[in-house]
Amino acid sequence: MKMRRAYNSVLKLPQLGTCPQCAAPYIPHRVCPACGYYKGRQVLTVTAGA
């Protein structure tokens, strides 16, 4: 009866916010992968890699 696929239409991708430090897109409530800041303080040290 294919009832198990009924919920797939409700699932959505996570919404992206804009980092206040570097203006890069990031997932809310996570550390920004571009600059390493979270809630106004630096949590990770991000280096430019090739």
Please, could you describe this protein's structure?
Helices cover 0% and strands 16% of the residues. By secondary structure, it is mainly β. The protein has one domain. The protein is elongated and about 50 Å long. The mean pLDDT is 84.
Topology record:
Elements: E1 17-18, E2 25-26, E3 37-38, E4 41-42
Antiparallel strand pairs: 1-2, 3-4
Quote the beta fraction. Answer: 15-25%
**Shape category:** elongated
The whole-number mean of residue pLDDT values reads 84
Distance between the termini: 50 Å
Alpha plus pi helix count = 0
Radius of gyration: 17 Å
Q: What's the number of extended β-strand segments? A: 4
Summarize the helix and strand pattern as letters: EEEE
For the record, the count of structural domains works out to: 1
Spatial strand arrangement across the major sheet:
1-2
Low-confidence stretches: none
Biggest pleated sheet: 2 strands, antiparallel
What class would the helix/strand composition place it in? mainly beta
The helix content is: under 10%
Short key terms for the protein model shown above:
single chain, 50 residues, mainly beta, two-stranded antiparallel ribbon, elongated
Give a summary of the structure in a few sentences.
The protein has about 50 residues and is an all-beta fold. It has one domain.
